Automatic annotation (TrEMBL):
Organism: Candidatus Electrothrix aarhusensis
Classification via NCBIfam families: sfsA
One MF term in the entry's GO annotations: DNA binding
Name this polypeptide is given: Sugar fermentation stimulation protein homolog
Gene this protein is translated from: sfsA
Membrane-spanning ranges: none
């Protein structure tokens, strides 16, 4: 049986090290200033290879086993020596399919002495894959993928602004300035896979539905809008809205797509060494424009 905690080494690791050694001095000051800020504020380090940004987890980690997840933001974990810890769970979703008791987990330790819970749940191992559950990492992954060109659906991106206020009570994750004009982007972390499909949401999300309406409202002749699902696990064949969990969200996604909102999904590679966005995922063919084979979307 494969050990989920055993790091996977390949020739790619050697190439990444060689790249850093030979070309590190050519990296832009802006990139490394950002990397330095991430390391200071979150304990996250970044490494660059020819194709990807690699986001490393905080250096102090522990392997453990999930006992239970509760009160949305807490989880109990047992360590190899039998110690039980209550850790912060930075995920407001239901964590359906990635919180089963007995699952291997990775937790990281913060160096912030003011935190009530020093340890953070980073990833869970289920269905033979590691699943990224720390949703505070998602926008950082996407931001770096914009800068590095891994997310290329918008052409060349000249600048990226975060946390953009679009109404009195709403903010969207990003505003991109591109050669074709501005693009508003809302990012959603996807950790649910069922029937080989990566799905969002894993619980009813009125807030997520509101964001879809905001994106559609912002579209005009010069401005585009998109919702981007960051899939932090490797076992999904394609992406689909979870209409059996939140039919309102699924139907709204179909409606705003018809109005011009781009629907994108990108897969992140997740393992105990690093997390990185690696490739685009297709939208499941039967879910294009929100219609399932043999069914019609109820618009009433």
């Amino acid at each position: 049986m494969e050990d989920p905690f055993l790091p996977a080494f390949s020739a790619g690791d050697e190439r990444a090290v060689a790249f850093i050694f030979l070309y590190g001095t050519c990296c832009t000051r802006r990139f490394w200033n950002r990397a330095s800020r991430l390391k200071k504020t979150r304990g996250i380090s970044l490494k660059k290879d020819q194709n990807h940004i690699l986001m490393h987890l905080p250096p102090i980690q522990q392997q453990g086993t999930m006992l239970r997840r509760y009160k949305r933001f807490l989880a109990d974990v047992t360590l190899a020596d039998g110690t039980e810890l209550t850790v912060h769970c930075p995920n407001s979703g239901a964590m359906r399919g990635c919180s089963a008791p007995g699952s291997p987990v990775i937790i990281s330790k913060s160096d912030n002495p003011k935190r009530k819970y020093a340890w953070t749940l980073e990833m869970v191992h289920q269905n033979g894959v590691w699943i990224g559950v720390n949703t505070s990492m998602t926008n950082k992954l996407v931001h770096e993928a914009f800068n590095n060109g891994v997310i290329d659906a918008f052409g060349r991106v000249a600048s990226v602004q975060s946390e953009i206020k679009v109404s009195d009570k709403s903010r969207l994750d990003f505003l991109l300035q591109t050669e074709a004009g501005p693009v508003y982007v809302e990012v959603k972390n996807c950790s649910l896979v069922e029937e080989d499909k990566a799905m969002f949401p894993d619980a009813v999300t009125a807030r997520g539905t509101k964001h879809l309406h905001e994106l559609a409202r912002l579209i005009d002749k010069e401005t585009r809008a998109a919702v981007l699902f960051c899939v932090q696990r490797a076992d999904g064949r394609c992406f689909a809205p979870a209409r059996h969990i939140d039919p309102v969200y699924a139907e709204t996604l179909a409606e705003v797509q018809k109005q011009g909102v781009q629907v994108l999904a990108y897969r992140a590679e997740v393992n105990p060494e690093e997390v990185r966005i690696v490739s685009a995922m297709e939208i499941c063919p039967e879910e294009q424009l929100g219609e399932k084979k043999g069914t019609r979307v109820n618009k009433g």
